[in-house]
Amino acid sequence: MKLSPGKRKRLEFVSDPRGVIAALAIDQRDALRKLFSAELKIEKQAVPREQVEEFKSIVVRALSPHASAVLLEPEYGLPAAAQRASTSGLLMAYEVSGYDPSVPGRIPRLLEGWSVRRLLDAGAQCIKVLLYYALSDAPEIMDRKRAWVERVGWECAGSDVPFFLEIVPYQAGVEDQSREFARCKPEVLSSAMKEFSQPRYCVDVLKVGVPVTMAYVQGSSACDGTFVHSRKDALDLFRRAAEAAAKPFLFLSAGVSNRVFNEALELASEAGVHFCGVLCGRATWKDGVGVFVRGGAEALQKWLETDGVANIRAVNASLRHATPWLEKYPANE
Predict the structure, then answer these.
(1) How far apart are CA 129 and CA 94, in angstroms?
(2) 175-209, pLDDT tens digit by residue?
(3) Whether pLDDT at 332 is above 80
(4) What is the CATH number of the domain that holds 39?
(5) How many helices and strands in the chain, by DSSP H and E?
(6) What is the pairing mode between strands 89-93 and 126-133?
(7) Within a domain: residue 75?
């Protein structure tokens, strides 16, 4: 596969010297407001903007020295982007957070008032969007989503900037954390990874959760004894998902604990999966929200210097078996 010199240079900005992406994700908006609302005992819409911005800034300032890049968004993340370490690159999210539940199909939307060009002007070196994907989608909804990804991909290509596509699998009428969904999730994810590896989408890196729900994997610390997949089955599902992808892919933590995410990365390594890194968010900093609400900025800073740094170092250690994205985009192409 070919990668333009401009895209290659920008991918290098967000990678470590090996070509592995060890990135911190804190582009959460709705999910972060939910965490704050639970601690503050208020509606998520009432969470003060300044509080979210300050939290992001403190986290980025403390943890970006340990990350090859930071993923933020322009709604709350611009002050934080200015706080990142000089050694840490910047990815920016381009999509509206969440979806309108009154509209079938979890339709994606782009941020009003922003474009790839404007995100680059704000300092971005790579662009990311999130897409909810289901095999249960009606054909017209599926086609609409594919056209949306094509549009973003070609906008990124026109600006010579790497395009990261985050895929979140779901199934209509099925609870995302349920045992039923754990059974169908691997097929949904593999199908999406195959589809969006096609050149027509101009995707450069896929951002995905692991193909299994760790709470339903036998032996996982998240499993209560009721499992859907044995460890052997889980390893096979990791391999199948990897085989479906023709583009480099990295893993996101999807809100699980640091311990569980590292268990998932160990499974990927044991399966021999060639993942090119992580974009890890809540598994690193989620517990800091309560610390910040109860103790303020100073308490959060102290927590990040101990627990937060320990969390991100644990994830970085799990990347020892990660494969550089250069494998898919060799320099001598």
Answers:
(1) 6
(2) 999 999 999 999 999 999 999 999 999 999 999 99
(3) no
(4) 3.20.20.70
(5) 12, 8
(6) parallel
(7) yes
